[in-house]
User: Fold this.
Amino acid sequence: MSIKETPQRPPEVPRSRSSRYADAPSIYAALVLFGLTVGAVYLLFRLQYLLTILFLAVLVASGIAGPVRRLERLGVPRAVAILAIYVVLGGMLGGLIWYVLPPVLGQAASASADIPKRLRDLRELQGRVAELSIDYPIIETLEVRLIDIAANAGNAFTNWLIGLPEAVAKVLFTLVSVLTIALLLLVTKERLLDLILEMIHPRHRATTQRVLAEMGVRLGAYVRAKLIVIVVVASLVYGTLVVLGATYAFLVATFAGMMEALPRIGPWLGRIAIFLAVLPLGWRAVAIAMVAHVIIENLKGQVISPLIESDQVDIHPLTAFVAIIAGGVLLGWLGALIAVPVAAALQVVVQDVVIPWRRNRLASAESIYVAGPPLPESDEANGSNVIEAEVGAEPRHRGPFDRRNVVR
Assistant:
């Protein structure tokens, strides 16, 4: 009986110092690349306000590019055409504020004059609640909670009033910056395009120019979609105010619709205007108007905006909805404002750059798979690439679908 000897592993050859550190440069390069990536992400996070202003400027420039081109065809210089459009838009906004502000202030004055009567009603209501709390102790607990809620709401409103001047100044600075940058982008559009194309390989310049043009078209379509949403919301608010019999229904609805351009804070400003418009009609009308406006806002966020913006910008409604949520989570109301146009621009890059590149790579991989791996030169020279065997034998070094798989 013979005992099989187990093969012993060959002794390991000690690695030299040079081979031991051969991978060090690649490791250092990976660490440096990781550090640069982290630094770039941190820098982008710190400069998110500046990047948002730049993107808003690009958005405004794309939105008014069409009217500017029409004025240029009529012989108007580009800078003059841009300023004329700014003047028209500013005049429309100023006229709206001029006509809306007096009635709003008048209604606010009448509401403030009615405050003593409302306070007396609250005292009477508090007395009735105190009487009922004797028989129903749970009412006292509810009263305490309502008082706490009212106190917290009052503190929040006070803090909002304290920070209001700073917020208004920041909004004005952002508006002026966006309009100025948009003006400069449109005036120097050709030079900027030439500068970008000079940094691109000549083989890819046509694709780059086509992608940039398509991005401009998508962003302009987003501006048009936003205007459509404003008109739809203003129409719904106007119908609600007319049914309730509110005065200045058209002006208040126009103001509420214009505020839809500002995510999160805009609807609240419109809601305040609606509240002041229906306040003289009584608390029942106020409750109906507030509930109706909440329903309109939910319809706008869940149905109107995704459908209209996705149709105009040519992106899927689900993509638009997810983009709005992601933008709001990452950058707040500014992120929600620019989420859909950013998604549209990224979609252009994916469709015109990433997908064609990936298709070319897959086509190359498929051709290699069909043809099989290349034959070694030694085998080709010796003629050993084909097996001299009986019928049914498969040649060596060939792919499974190689046409050269013929048995001699």
Remarks:
- Confidence is low (pLDDT under 50) at residues 378-408.
